[in-house]
């Protein structure tokens, strides 16, 4: 049962937050082969004063953390990272995220 934490600035709609969580979950179902009903996710919304965003990034910047049991293959992890990045890009996140070297 992976635990997902998504950290972002406050201000996104309920639908946007649901779409983000769905995108992460879809990637884990596909690449970690967890059951669809196995969802343990949380969103941490922070005020701008409490969240340093890297230079050049927009207020839509977010951090996705996945804590999972040890033992998944490198291919499964890479596939999940890539799928999360692609799913976030489909939601309008910065296109640069899908070009990050850690994704490939």
Commentary on this structure:
The protein is α+β, with helices and mostly antiparallel strands and 104 residues long. The chain has 2 helices and 3 strands; from the N terminus they run βαββα. Strand 1 (3-9), helix 1 (14-31) and strand 2 (41-46) form a beta-alpha-beta unit. The protein starts with a strand and ends in a 14-residue tail after the last helix. The relative contact order is 0.24. The model has no long low-confidence stretch (mean pLDDT 86).
Beta fraction of the residues? 15-25%
- Runs in which pLDDT lies below 50 for 5 or more consecutive residues are none
Rg estimate, integer Å: 14 Å
The general outline is globular
Helix content estimate: 25-40%
What count of helical segments does DSSP give? 2
Describe the main β-sheet briefly. Answer: 3 strands, mixed
Strand order in space, largest sheet: 2-1-3
Could you report the average pLDDT, rounded to the nearest whole number? Answer: 86
Distance from N terminus to C terminus (CA atoms, Å) equals 24 Å
Which structural class best describes the helix and strand composition? alpha+beta
The SSE string, one letter per element, is: EHEEH
Q: Count all strands and give the number.
A: 3
